Amino acid sequence: MRMLQEWVCKKRFSRKNGPLTRLKQIDEAAYVALAGCVDAIGDASFPRLLSSYCAELCGASSVYLSAYFLEEKPTPLYTNHHADHINDALKVYNDVAYVLDPFFQRFKAGKADEVLTLREFAPDNFKRSEYYHLFYDAMGLHDETGMQVRISDSAALFFSFGVHGSGKRTSPKQLARAFPLVSALAKRHWTVLTPERTHGTGRMAAHLEIAFNKFGESVLSPREGDIVRMILRGHSSKSIARHFGNSPETIKVHRRRVYNKLEITSQGQLLSLFLTALSLAPLYSNEDPLTFVKDSKVPVV
Q1: Residues 250, 127: one domain?
Q2: What share of the chain is helix, strand, coil (3-state, %, to 5)?
Q3: Whole-model pTM above 0.70?
Q4: pLDDT tens, position by position, 130-146
Q5: Is residue 14 part of a domain?
């Protein structure tokens, strides 16, 4: 009898494109998508890749990712909605209507790190409300799964996954099972989440290195830029001279020229200028951070 069961099992699950093969294909696709998310931590593509991965897990056709704050309006981070009427509805949502959103109310109430469908907790008459008509009907959404990832006491990421078409529903079971991993990835990307800083900082060291290497390139020669970086690292004129095979006097001439170009007079001002430039430069910028100081009104001490 046991041999017969094993034979049936083998015949049933070894056929080409059978259940076992399909399951393997699904797992492999999920792992590829997940690897893409891991590789994109700290990159501008991360919100899109993570949102798409999660949407696939819960069978959603649309996704909208935003940042929730206790004292500020939500900040949109990613969406695959492209229709004008949907984007118009989302703008109204972010400006004022979010305060009526049942998911936002859960965030305000201190709920954290959860995956659940709207139908699990919405008020009994919610689908007859003007809010539902204004947003869900306008966007053609027939069901929604929400995922909240709490980043701090006052900020959270909120993923809205929806389906279009009557009778269709999202299925949050797989997403809920994967939530610990998804949450960990999101928190590695968004190490800080504030109204002023919604870009991921998961690769801050890499971004700082790029900014450091580009600092001053818009006004300094390549050699002057090298000297500035050595000064910032703490090298004296003698140490810099040894490195480049010049005399200390030559390095001092370069140093005076650099200070004139940067409109500073001391090493302390150079450090202050550098730190100010880093604080103003966008996270994914590939430009000289100094250009953002010129465009701002921030005083350099």
Answers
A1: no
A2: 55, 15, 30
A3: no
A4: 888 888 887 888 889 99
A5: no
